[in-house]
Protein backbone atom coordinates (compact mmCIF):
# COMPACT_ATOMS: atom_id res chain seq x y z
CA UNK A 1 0.00 0.00 0.00
CA UNK A 2 1.88 3.04 -1.27
CA UNK A 3 1.38 6.47 0.29
CA UNK A 4 0.66 7.79 -3.22
CA UNK A 5 -1.98 5.15 -4.04
CA UNK A 6 -5.78 5.42 -4.18
CA UNK A 7 -5.96 2.58 -1.66
CA UNK A 8 -4.01 4.62 0.88
CA UNK A 9 -6.04 7.75 0.08
CA UNK A 10 -9.07 5.79 1.34
CA UNK A 11 -7.21 4.09 4.19
CA UNK A 12 -5.81 7.21 5.91
CA UNK A 13 -9.09 9.20 6.35
CA UNK A 14 -10.84 6.10 7.71
CA UNK A 15 -8.04 5.52 10.23
CA UNK A 16 -8.07 9.22 11.18
CA UNK A 17 -11.84 9.27 11.83
CA UNK A 18 -11.84 6.01 13.82
CA UNK A 19 -8.79 7.10 15.82
CA UNK A 20 -10.28 10.40 17.02
CA UNK A 21 -14.00 9.56 17.16
CA UNK A 22 -14.03 5.90 18.27
CA UNK A 23 -10.69 4.98 19.86
CA UNK A 24 -9.64 8.20 21.59
CA UNK A 25 -10.97 7.30 25.06
CA UNK A 26 -7.52 6.73 26.54
CA UNK A 27 -3.92 6.02 25.65
CA UNK A 28 -4.38 2.23 25.65
CA UNK A 29 -7.22 2.25 23.12
CA UNK A 30 -5.35 4.74 20.92
CA UNK A 31 -2.19 2.62 20.92
CA UNK A 32 -4.00 -0.70 20.46
CA UNK A 33 -5.91 0.69 17.49
CA UNK A 34 -2.74 2.06 15.88
CA UNK A 35 -1.00 -1.32 16.30
CA UNK A 36 -3.89 -3.13 14.60
CA UNK A 37 -3.86 -0.56 11.81
CA UNK A 38 -0.08 -0.80 11.46
CA UNK A 39 -0.13 -4.58 11.24
CA UNK A 40 -2.89 -4.43 8.63
CA UNK A 41 -0.85 -1.86 6.69
CA UNK A 42 2.20 -4.13 6.78
CA UNK A 43 0.18 -7.20 5.83
CA UNK A 44 -0.83 -5.48 2.60
CA UNK A 45 2.75 -6.03 1.41
CA UNK A 46 3.05 -9.68 2.49
CA UNK A 47 1.15 -11.03 5.49
CA UNK A 48 3.74 -13.79 6.05
CA UNK A 49 6.36 -11.27 7.17
CA UNK A 50 4.08 -10.13 9.98
CA UNK A 51 5.50 -13.05 11.96
CA UNK A 52 9.05 -11.72 11.43
CA UNK A 53 7.99 -8.24 12.60
CA UNK A 54 6.21 -9.72 15.62
CA UNK A 55 9.19 -11.93 16.50
CA UNK A 56 11.62 -9.01 16.24
CA UNK A 57 9.35 -6.89 18.45
CA UNK A 58 8.96 -9.55 21.16
CA UNK A 59 12.67 -10.41 21.07
CA UNK A 60 13.76 -6.84 21.80
CA UNK A 61 10.95 -6.27 24.30
CA UNK A 62 11.90 -9.39 26.28
CA UNK A 63 15.69 -8.96 26.07
CA UNK A 64 15.38 -5.31 27.06
CA UNK A 65 13.60 -6.29 30.29
CA UNK A 66 16.14 -9.05 30.97
CA UNK A 67 19.07 -6.67 30.47
CA UNK A 68 17.61 -4.16 32.90
CA UNK A 69 16.78 -6.61 35.68
CA UNK A 70 20.02 -8.63 35.42
CA UNK A 71 22.34 -7.88 38.33
CA UNK A 72 25.43 -9.55 36.87
CA UNK A 73 27.32 -8.11 33.90
CA UNK A 74 27.68 -11.57 32.37
CA UNK A 75 23.91 -11.97 32.25
CA UNK A 76 23.41 -8.46 30.87
CA UNK A 77 25.90 -9.16 28.10
CA UNK A 78 24.21 -12.46 27.26
CA UNK A 79 20.80 -10.87 26.67
CA UNK A 80 22.34 -7.89 24.92
CA UNK A 81 24.31 -9.98 22.44
CA UNK A 82 21.40 -12.36 21.95
CA UNK A 83 19.30 -9.47 20.67
CA UNK A 84 22.11 -8.02 18.54
CA UNK A 85 23.08 -11.34 16.94
CA UNK A 86 19.53 -12.49 16.22
CA UNK A 87 18.47 -9.12 14.79
CA UNK A 88 21.54 -8.77 12.60
CA UNK A 89 21.30 -12.47 11.74
CA UNK A 90 17.81 -12.06 10.28
CA UNK A 91 18.84 -8.89 8.46
CA UNK A 92 21.95 -10.62 7.09
CA UNK A 93 20.09 -13.74 6.00
CA UNK A 94 17.35 -11.90 4.12
CA UNK A 95 19.37 -9.01 2.75
CA UNK A 96 23.01 -10.07 2.43
CA UNK A 97 23.38 -13.86 2.35
CA UNK A 98 22.91 -14.26 -1.42
CA UNK A 99 25.29 -11.36 -2.07
CA UNK A 100 28.08 -12.87 0.03
CA UNK A 101 27.49 -16.38 -1.31
CA UNK A 102 27.58 -15.20 -4.92
CA UNK A 103 30.60 -12.94 -4.36
CA UNK A 104 32.52 -15.76 -2.68
CA UNK A 105 31.69 -18.13 -5.54
CA UNK A 106 32.86 -15.54 -8.09
CA UNK A 107 36.10 -15.04 -6.16
CA UNK A 108 36.72 -18.79 -6.25
CA UNK A 109 35.97 -18.88 -9.97
CA UNK A 110 38.57 -16.18 -10.59
CA UNK A 111 41.28 -18.55 -9.29
CA UNK A 112 39.96 -21.58 -11.19
CA UNK A 113 37.75 -23.10 -8.49
CA UNK A 114 34.18 -23.43 -9.74
CA UNK A 115 31.28 -23.86 -7.34
CA UNK A 116 27.51 -23.58 -7.27
CA UNK A 117 26.56 -21.59 -4.17
CA UNK A 118 23.39 -22.38 -2.25
CA UNK A 119 21.11 -19.35 -2.54
CA UNK A 120 18.02 -18.45 -0.55
CA UNK A 121 14.91 -18.11 -2.68
CA UNK A 122 13.25 -15.43 -0.52
CA UNK A 123 12.15 -11.86 -1.08
CA UNK A 124 13.42 -9.04 1.11
CA UNK A 125 10.86 -8.18 3.81
CA UNK A 126 9.85 -4.57 3.26
CA UNK A 127 11.13 -2.22 5.95
CA UNK A 128 13.37 -4.79 7.67
CA UNK A 129 16.38 -2.43 7.75
CA UNK A 130 14.28 0.27 9.42
CA UNK A 131 12.45 -1.68 12.13
CA UNK A 132 15.59 -3.70 12.90
CA UNK A 133 17.45 -0.46 13.61
CA UNK A 134 14.56 0.73 15.79
CA UNK A 135 14.97 -2.34 17.97
CA UNK A 136 18.77 -2.24 17.99
CA UNK A 137 18.92 1.36 19.22
CA UNK A 138 16.38 0.52 21.96
CA UNK A 139 18.37 -2.47 23.26
CA UNK A 140 21.70 -0.62 23.04
CA UNK A 141 20.30 2.33 25.00
CA UNK A 142 19.03 0.00 27.72
CA UNK A 143 22.36 -1.82 27.94
CA UNK A 144 24.24 1.46 28.39
CA UNK A 145 21.59 2.61 30.91
CA UNK A 146 20.44 5.59 28.88
CA UNK A 147 16.80 4.53 29.16
CA UNK A 148 14.65 2.13 31.16
CA UNK A 149 13.14 -0.96 29.59
CA UNK A 150 9.54 -0.52 28.48
CA UNK A 151 7.24 -2.85 30.45
CA UNK A 152 4.09 -2.18 28.42
CA UNK A 153 4.27 -4.47 25.39
CA UNK A 154 1.58 -2.51 23.52
CA UNK A 155 3.49 0.76 23.85
CA UNK A 156 6.74 -0.87 22.74
CA UNK A 157 5.08 -2.67 19.81
CA UNK A 158 3.67 0.63 18.59
CA UNK A 159 7.13 2.22 18.77
CA UNK A 160 8.49 -0.50 16.46
CA UNK A 161 5.54 -0.96 14.09
CA UNK A 162 3.93 2.50 13.82
CA UNK A 163 2.76 2.45 10.20
CA UNK A 164 3.90 5.91 8.91
CA UNK A 165 7.55 5.02 9.61
CA UNK A 166 7.41 1.23 9.41
CA UNK A 167 8.61 0.58 5.87
CA UNK A 168 10.91 3.52 5.05
CA UNK A 169 11.63 5.48 8.19
CA UNK A 170 12.64 7.82 9.60
CA UNK A 171 14.60 5.61 12.00
CA UNK A 172 13.11 6.57 15.36
CA UNK A 173 14.69 6.49 18.81
CA UNK A 174 12.96 5.12 21.89
CA UNK A 175 14.02 8.26 23.75
CA UNK A 176 12.01 10.37 21.32
CA UNK A 177 8.92 8.35 20.35
CA UNK A 178 8.20 6.13 23.38
CA UNK A 179 7.44 9.05 25.75
CA UNK A 180 4.86 10.27 23.22
CA UNK A 181 3.05 6.94 22.88
CA UNK A 182 2.91 6.52 26.67
CA UNK A 183 0.48 9.42 27.10
CA UNK A 184 -2.98 10.07 25.69
CA UNK A 185 -3.03 12.33 22.66
CA UNK A 186 -5.54 15.11 22.24
CA UNK A 187 -6.53 16.52 18.87
CA UNK A 188 -4.64 19.67 17.94
CA UNK A 189 -6.11 21.47 14.93
CA UNK A 190 -2.99 23.53 14.24
CA UNK A 191 -0.76 20.46 14.34
CA UNK A 192 -3.19 18.59 12.07
CA UNK A 193 -3.16 21.47 9.58
CA UNK A 194 0.64 21.45 9.60
CA UNK A 195 0.43 17.72 8.97
CA UNK A 196 -1.87 18.14 5.97
CA UNK A 197 0.47 20.74 4.44
CA UNK A 198 3.45 18.45 4.96
CA UNK A 199 1.62 15.48 3.42
CA UNK A 200 0.65 17.52 0.36
CA UNK A 201 4.19 18.84 -0.10
CA UNK A 202 5.53 15.30 0.28
CA UNK A 203 3.17 14.22 -2.49
CA UNK A 204 4.42 17.07 -4.68
CA UNK A 205 8.00 15.89 -4.14
CA UNK A 206 7.06 12.31 -4.95
CA UNK A 207 4.46 12.60 -7.71
CA UNK A 208 5.46 15.85 -9.42
CA UNK A 209 9.25 15.78 -9.01
CA UNK A 210 10.52 12.26 -8.25
CA UNK A 211 8.21 10.25 -10.52
CA UNK A 212 8.64 12.67 -13.43
CA UNK A 213 12.42 12.71 -13.02
CA UNK A 214 12.39 8.91 -12.79
CA UNK A 215 10.83 8.60 -16.24
CA UNK A 216 13.67 10.62 -17.78
CA UNK A 217 16.46 9.20 -15.57
CA UNK A 218 15.43 5.62 -16.40
CA UNK A 219 15.38 6.37 -20.12
CA UNK A 220 18.91 7.81 -19.94
CA UNK A 221 20.51 5.28 -17.59
CA UNK A 222 18.96 2.28 -19.35
CA UNK A 223 20.28 3.51 -22.71
CA UNK A 224 23.36 5.39 -21.57
CA UNK A 225 25.62 4.01 -24.33
CA UNK A 226 23.52 5.89 -26.89
CA UNK A 227 23.45 9.14 -24.89
CA UNK A 228 25.69 12.16 -25.39
CA UNK A 229 27.41 14.19 -22.65
CA UNK A 230 24.48 16.57 -22.09
CA UNK A 231 21.96 13.74 -21.69
CA UNK A 232 24.28 11.82 -19.36
CA UNK A 233 24.75 14.91 -17.16
CA UNK A 234 21.00 15.48 -17.11
CA UNK A 235 20.46 11.81 -16.27
CA UNK A 236 22.65 12.13 -13.18
CA UNK A 237 20.90 15.37 -12.16
CA UNK A 238 17.46 13.87 -12.73
CA UNK A 239 18.31 10.87 -10.59
CA UNK A 240 19.61 13.18 -7.85
CA UNK A 241 16.23 14.92 -7.75
CA UNK A 242 14.38 11.62 -8.16
CA UNK A 243 15.94 10.05 -5.08
CA UNK A 244 15.63 13.28 -3.09
CA UNK A 245 12.00 13.87 -4.05
CA UNK A 246 11.19 10.20 -3.57
CA UNK A 247 12.75 9.66 -0.15
CA UNK A 248 12.28 13.10 1.40
CA UNK A 249 8.74 13.11 -0.01
CA UNK A 250 8.03 9.84 1.80
CA UNK A 251 9.54 11.27 4.99
CA UNK A 252 7.44 14.43 4.70
CA UNK A 253 4.29 12.35 4.28
CA UNK A 254 5.24 10.15 7.24
CA UNK A 255 5.89 13.16 9.47
CA UNK A 256 2.74 14.90 8.26
CA UNK A 257 0.35 12.01 8.77
CA UNK A 258 1.92 11.33 12.16
CA UNK A 259 0.96 14.86 13.19
CA UNK A 260 -2.63 13.93 12.36
CA UNK A 261 -2.43 11.38 15.18
CA UNK A 262 -0.75 13.72 17.65
CA UNK A 263 2.76 12.26 17.32
CA UNK A 264 5.98 13.92 16.18
CA UNK A 265 8.62 11.97 14.25
CA UNK A 266 12.27 12.88 13.75
CA UNK A 267 13.00 15.16 10.82
CA UNK A 268 14.82 13.24 8.12
CA UNK A 269 15.76 15.88 5.52
CA UNK A 270 16.69 19.55 5.78
CA UNK A 271 17.21 20.86 2.24
CA UNK A 272 20.44 18.89 1.64
CA UNK A 273 21.09 20.17 -1.89
CA UNK A 274 21.76 23.64 -0.50
CA UNK A 275 24.75 22.33 1.44
CA UNK A 276 28.12 24.06 1.03
CA UNK A 277 30.27 20.98 1.72
CA UNK A 278 29.85 17.24 2.09
CA UNK A 279 29.90 17.39 5.90
CA UNK A 280 26.91 19.75 5.83
CA UNK A 281 25.22 17.54 3.24
CA UNK A 282 25.35 14.58 5.58
CA UNK A 283 23.92 16.64 8.42
CA UNK A 284 20.95 17.36 6.19
CA UNK A 285 20.45 14.09 4.23
CA UNK A 286 18.71 11.05 5.78
CA UNK A 287 19.35 12.62 9.18
CA UNK A 288 17.92 9.74 11.20
CA UNK A 289 20.29 7.20 9.61
CA UNK A 290 23.33 9.50 9.73
CA UNK A 291 22.75 10.26 13.41
CA UNK A 292 22.10 6.56 14.12
CA UNK A 293 25.50 5.55 12.72
CA UNK A 294 27.13 8.50 14.47
CA UNK A 295 25.74 7.55 17.89
CA UNK A 296 25.91 3.75 17.69
CA UNK A 297 28.98 3.16 15.51
CA UNK A 298 31.15 6.24 14.94
CA UNK A 299 31.32 7.45 18.57
CA UNK A 300 31.86 3.95 20.04
CA UNK A 301 34.74 3.50 17.58
CA UNK A 302 36.32 6.64 19.01
CA UNK A 303 34.67 9.26 16.81
CA UNK A 304 36.87 12.31 16.31
CA UNK A 305 39.04 11.47 19.29
CA UNK A 306 42.49 9.94 18.98
CA UNK A 307 44.95 10.19 16.13
CA UNK A 308 44.07 11.44 12.66
CA UNK A 309 44.64 7.92 11.35
CA UNK A 310 41.96 6.54 13.68
CA UNK A 311 39.60 9.36 12.75
CA UNK A 312 40.07 8.57 9.07
CA UNK A 313 39.49 4.88 9.79
CA UNK A 314 36.26 5.67 11.64
CA UNK A 315 34.99 7.88 8.83
CA UNK A 316 35.57 5.19 6.20
CA UNK A 317 33.92 2.54 8.39
CA UNK A 318 30.79 4.59 8.96
CA UNK A 319 30.39 5.60 5.30
CA UNK A 320 31.07 2.13 3.89
CA UNK A 321 28.68 0.53 6.39
CA UNK A 322 26.11 3.20 5.55
CA UNK A 323 26.49 2.34 1.88
CA UNK A 324 26.13 -1.36 2.60
CA UNK A 325 23.01 -0.68 4.69
CA UNK A 326 21.33 0.50 1.49
CA UNK A 327 21.70 -2.81 -0.29
CA UNK A 328 23.71 -5.88 -1.15
CA UNK A 329 25.62 -4.59 -4.14
CA UNK A 330 29.17 -3.40 -4.68
CA UNK A 331 27.77 -0.17 -6.12
CA UNK A 332 26.43 0.83 -2.70
CA UNK A 333 29.79 0.11 -1.10
CA UNK A 334 31.45 2.23 -3.79
CA UNK A 335 28.94 5.03 -3.14
CA UNK A 336 29.77 4.96 0.58
CA UNK A 337 33.52 4.86 -0.12
CA UNK A 338 33.29 7.84 -2.49
CA UNK A 339 31.42 9.89 0.11
CA UNK A 340 34.11 9.00 2.66
CA UNK A 341 36.72 10.36 0.24
CA UNK A 342 34.64 13.51 -0.18
CA UNK A 343 34.43 13.92 3.61
CA UNK A 344 38.15 13.40 4.19
CA UNK A 345 39.39 16.96 3.42
CA UNK A 346 36.89 18.46 5.90
CA UNK A 347 38.07 16.04 8.56
CA UNK A 348 41.79 16.62 7.98
CA UNK A 349 41.40 20.40 7.80
CA UNK A 350 39.06 20.51 10.77
CA UNK A 351 36.27 22.23 8.81
CA UNK A 352 33.66 19.50 9.18
CA UNK A 353 31.72 21.57 11.72
CA UNK A 354 31.65 24.68 9.53
CA UNK A 355 28.46 25.73 7.76
CA UNK A 356 26.12 24.91 10.62
CA UNK A 357 23.67 27.68 9.79
CA UNK A 358 21.43 27.56 6.72
CA UNK A 359 23.00 29.11 3.62
CA UNK A 360 22.04 32.63 2.58
CA UNK A 361 22.81 34.69 -0.51
CA UNK A 362 23.24 38.46 -0.65
CA UNK A 363 24.61 40.86 -3.21
CA UNK A 364 28.23 40.52 -2.10
CA UNK A 365 31.42 38.62 -2.93
CA UNK A 366 30.91 36.07 -0.17
CA UNK A 367 27.64 35.00 -1.77
CA UNK A 368 29.51 34.12 -4.95
CA UNK A 369 31.63 31.75 -2.87
CA UNK A 370 28.50 30.30 -1.22
CA UNK A 371 26.81 29.77 -4.59
CA UNK A 372 29.75 27.93 -6.12
CA UNK A 373 30.25 25.91 -2.93
CA UNK A 374 26.63 24.73 -3.18
CA UNK A 375 27.06 23.97 -6.89
CA UNK A 376 30.31 22.04 -6.28
CA UNK A 377 28.78 20.00 -3.45
CA UNK A 378 25.76 19.15 -5.58
CA UNK A 379 28.04 18.12 -8.47
CA UNK A 380 30.04 15.80 -6.22
CA UNK A 381 26.80 14.30 -4.94
CA UNK A 382 25.60 13.67 -8.50
CA UNK A 383 28.84 11.84 -9.34
CA UNK A 384 28.33 9.60 -6.31
CA UNK A 385 24.65 9.07 -7.20
CA UNK A 386 25.73 7.56 -10.52
CA UNK A 387 27.28 4.67 -8.58
CA UNK A 388 24.15 4.40 -6.42
CA UNK A 389 21.92 4.19 -9.52
CA UNK A 390 24.09 2.02 -11.80
CA UNK A 391 23.71 -1.75 -11.77
CA UNK A 392 27.46 -2.36 -11.57
CA UNK A 393 30.58 -0.36 -10.77
CA UNK A 394 31.80 -0.96 -14.34
CA UNK A 395 28.67 0.66 -15.75
CA UNK A 396 29.00 3.62 -13.36
CA UNK A 397 32.62 4.22 -14.41
CA UNK A 398 31.71 3.87 -18.09
CA UNK A 399 28.79 6.30 -17.63
CA UNK A 400 31.05 8.96 -16.09
CA UNK A 401 33.79 8.35 -18.65
CA UNK A 402 31.34 8.95 -21.50
CA UNK A 403 30.38 12.31 -20.00
CA UNK A 404 34.01 13.40 -20.28
CA UNK A 405 34.89 11.83 -23.63
CA UNK A 406 31.71 12.33 -25.68
CA UNK A 407 31.71 16.15 -25.56
CA UNK A 408 28.41 16.41 -27.44
CA UNK A 409 25.98 18.82 -25.81
CA UNK A 410 23.03 18.73 -28.21
CA UNK A 411 19.61 18.00 -26.72
CA UNK A 412 18.51 14.46 -27.56
CA UNK A 413 15.08 12.95 -28.15
CA UNK A 414 14.78 10.17 -25.57
CA UNK A 415 13.46 6.66 -26.19
CA UNK A 416 10.37 7.51 -24.14
CA UNK A 417 9.53 10.09 -26.82
CA UNK A 418 10.29 13.12 -24.69
CA UNK A 419 12.65 16.07 -24.78
CA UNK A 420 14.33 17.44 -21.67
CA UNK A 421 13.29 21.08 -21.81
CA UNK A 422 10.05 20.90 -19.84
CA UNK A 423 11.58 18.88 -17.01
CA UNK A 424 14.53 21.27 -16.71
CA UNK A 425 12.09 24.12 -16.14
CA UNK A 426 10.13 22.05 -13.62
CA UNK A 427 13.28 21.19 -11.64
CA UNK A 428 14.43 24.83 -11.67
CA UNK A 429 11.02 25.94 -10.37
CA UNK A 430 11.24 23.31 -7.62
CA UNK A 431 14.72 24.53 -6.64
CA UNK A 432 13.46 28.11 -6.35
CA UNK A 433 10.49 27.09 -4.22
CA UNK A 434 12.70 25.04 -1.89
CA UNK A 435 15.30 27.82 -1.66
CA UNK A 436 12.68 30.36 -0.64
CA UNK A 437 11.29 27.90 1.92
CA UNK A 438 14.53 26.55 3.37
CA UNK A 439 13.88 28.03 6.81
CA UNK A 440 10.50 26.26 7.04
CA UNK A 441 9.39 22.63 7.28
CA UNK A 442 7.49 22.96 4.00
CA UNK A 443 6.65 25.82 1.61
CA UNK A 444 2.82 25.72 1.74
CA UNK A 445 2.24 27.25 5.17
CA UNK A 446 2.35 30.98 5.69
CA UNK A 447 1.11 33.70 3.39
CA UNK A 448 -1.26 32.59 0.61
CA UNK A 449 -1.31 29.03 2.01
CA UNK A 450 -4.74 28.38 0.49
CA UNK A 451 -3.62 29.35 -3.01
CA UNK A 452 -0.38 27.38 -2.68
CA UNK A 453 -2.32 24.34 -1.49
CA UNK A 454 -4.62 24.50 -4.53
CA UNK A 455 -1.67 24.85 -6.91
CA UNK A 456 0.05 21.85 -5.32
CA UNK A 457 -3.09 19.72 -5.64
CA UNK A 458 -3.50 20.75 -9.28
CA UNK A 459 0.13 19.82 -9.98
CA UNK A 460 -0.34 16.42 -8.32
CA UNK A 461 -3.50 15.74 -10.33
CA UNK A 462 -1.96 16.98 -13.59
CA UNK A 463 1.24 14.93 -13.32
CA UNK A 464 -0.05 11.99 -11.27
CA UNK A 465 -0.88 9.95 -14.36
CA UNK A 466 2.03 11.25 -16.44
CA UNK A 467 4.85 9.20 -14.96
CA UNK A 468 5.59 5.55 -15.61
CA UNK A 469 7.22 5.19 -12.18
CA UNK A 470 5.21 4.89 -8.95
CA UNK A 471 7.15 2.91 -6.32
CA UNK A 472 9.31 4.39 -3.57
CA UNK A 473 13.03 3.73 -4.03
CA UNK A 474 13.74 3.14 -0.34
CA UNK A 475 11.18 0.33 -0.04
CA UNK A 476 13.88 -1.97 -1.43
CA UNK A 477 16.17 -1.17 1.52
Question: Can you give me a brief rundown of this structure?
Answer:
The chain has 477 residues and is mostly helical. It has 19 helices and no strands.
Give your account of this protein's structure.
There is one protein chain. The protein is mostly helical and 477 residues long. It has 19 helices and no strands. The protein has helices at 6-21, 27-46, 50-69, 73-95, 97-110, 128-143, 153-161, 163-166, 174-181, 189-222, 229-260, 278-284, 287-298, 308-326, 330-349, 365-389, 393-406, 421-436, 449-464. Helix 13 packs across helix 14 and helix 16 (365-389) crosses helix 17 (393-406). The longest helix is centred in the middle third of the chain and has 34 residues, at 189-222. The mean pLDDT is 90.
**Number of helical regions:** 19
Beta percentage is under 5%
End-to-end gap: 16 Å
Shape call: globular
* Rg: 23 Å
Q: What is the average of the pLDDT values?
A: 90
Helix content: 55-70%
Q: How many β strands by DSSP?
A: 0
Structural class: mainly alpha
The description of the largest β-sheet is: none
**Order of H and E elements:** HHHHHHHHHHHHHHHHHHH
Unreliably modeled segments: none
Features:
19 helices; 477 residues; 0% strand; globular; mainly alpha
Which SSEs are present, and which pair or pack?
Layout: H1 6-21, H2 27-46, H3 50-69, H4 73-95, H5 97-110, H6 128-143, H7 153-161, H8 163-166, H9 174-181, H10 189-222, H11 229-260, H12 278-284, H13 287-298, H14 308-326, H15 330-349, H16 365-389, H17 393-406, H18 421-436, H19 449-464
Helix pairs in contact: 2-7, 3-4, 3-6, 3-7, 4-6, 7-9, 10-11, 10-19, 11-16, 11-17, 13-14, 14-15, 15-16, 16-17
Amino acid sequence: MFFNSLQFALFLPIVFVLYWFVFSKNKSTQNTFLIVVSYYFYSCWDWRFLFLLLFSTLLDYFTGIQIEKSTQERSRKFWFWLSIIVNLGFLGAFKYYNFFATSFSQALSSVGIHSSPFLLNVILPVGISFYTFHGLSYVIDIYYKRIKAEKNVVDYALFVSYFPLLVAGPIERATHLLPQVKVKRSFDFEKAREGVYQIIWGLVKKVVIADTCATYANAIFDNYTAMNSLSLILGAVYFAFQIYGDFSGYSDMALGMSKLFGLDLLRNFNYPYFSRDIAEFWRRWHISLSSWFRDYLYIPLGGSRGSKLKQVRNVFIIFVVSGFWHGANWTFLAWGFINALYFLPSLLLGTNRDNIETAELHWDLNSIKVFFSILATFTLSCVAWVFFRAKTITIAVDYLERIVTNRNFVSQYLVNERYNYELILLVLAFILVEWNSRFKIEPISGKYSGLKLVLCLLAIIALGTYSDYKEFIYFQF
